[in-house]
Amino acid sequence: MKATLERTDLLKSLTHVHRVVERRNTIPILSNVLLRAEDGALRLKATDLDLEVLETIPAMVEMPGATTIPAHMIYDIVRKLPDGSQVVLETTGDNATLELRAGRSRFTLQMLPETDFPDLTTGDFTHGFTLTAADVRKLIDTTQFAISTEETRYYLNGIYLHAVETGEGQRFRAVATDGHRLAQAEVPAPSGSSGMPGIIVPRKTVGEIQKLLESPEADVQIELSETKIRATTGPIVLTSKLIDGTFPDYGRVIPQGNDKEMRVDRDEFKEAVDRVSTISSERGRAVKLALSDGRMVLTVNNPDSGSATEELAVEYSAEPLEIGFNSRYLLDIANQLSSDTALFRLADSGSPTLIQDNSVDDCLFVLMPMRV
């Protein structure tokens, strides 16, 4: 194999694919990236057996061929090469090492045979549709923070994607929850998503898809089967296994009868919560909201360091109510709101609260209260 290509192209591609490779591997081949030079292009592939990223970049191929080399090693080498340099990749005659040359730099890397490299892209995809990168980013950004990190409830360790029928027609919806909070976002359902199975996309895959969405105008082609998802954007193809589990009936935890409405300036609220929570304990993080006619008082008490209060003007005319929340969870939700005013729909101090944008209704958040 011998190929010559731009350092910029190679670095950009390695940045995408090397992230998939775990730094500690018991299987040596999984520490490597597969390089395949043919037809005027270099194809790079990396996998951890659950997730695979493949990218194609232009190259001048003098001798077609394929090999695998340590992913993090070649990424670090190329990252440190001078800007604008040309990189030559050439395997030795005995196919034991790969030589990388750029200007006066020369590296020799140990190889493993490409026949040992696993392939994740087997099986047929039953559903396919196209979303804009802006829609995919909206679905992920709005819900990602609520993904559970509790490994025992593995079916919550991802984002649940499915098509639903609503009063506004069919919608494509993303939901994530960790049992303490729930985030839901939706966009118009793309053609081809009707009848798709509900799928749970793992946390790591969600993060990688998010990082690959560089242009909001780009299209993302999604293909699904019962066990895998494949996302293609430009020259990058990401394939991942899905979480094999049943996502809970989240509709049951979205409150329908919360009749107390409170509206507050999003930024003022966010800053006030951030300020008073400065003295909260790492373990507690509780902030109490005391609501009365036209005002809200935020209070944090920490027996070890003291207390803090702050008053805000709000739109609220229902009976007085005191309710406590995890301050970090409040800030996470406030950061996802897009309008200037946040709408809280409350019931009582022990029931879940519904939080939405005042002017946008395609996202909603549910937050369980804390005892304070």
Automatic annotation (TrEMBL):
Superkingdom of this protein's organism: Bacteria
**Biological role stated in the UniProt entry:** Confers DNA tethering and processivity to DNA polymerases and other proteins. Acts as a clamp, forming a ring around DNA (a reaction catalyzed by the clamp-loading complex) which diffuses in an ATP-independent manner freely and bidirectionally along dsDNA. Initially characterized for its ability to contact the catalytic subunit of DNA polymerase III (Pol III), a complex, multichain enzyme responsible for most of the replicative synthesis in bacteria; Pol III exhibits 3'-5' exonuclease proofreading activity.
Q: Give the GO molecular function terms.
A: 3'-5' exonuclease activity; DNA binding; DNA-directed DNA polymerase activity
Query: Which cellular component, as a GO term, is one annotated location?
Result: DNA polymerase III complex
Q: Which InterPro entries is this protein grouped with?
A: DNA_clamp_sf (IPR046938), DNA_polIII_beta (IPR001001), DNA_polIII_beta_C (IPR022635), DNA_polIII_beta_cen (IPR022637), DNA_polIII_beta_N (IPR022634)
Give the lineage: Bacteria, Pseudomonadati, Pseudomonadota, Alphaproteobacteria, Hyphomicrobiales
Protein family membership: Belongs to the beta sliding clamp family.
**Chief location of this protein within or outside the cell:** cytoplasm
Protein name, as recorded: Beta sliding clamp
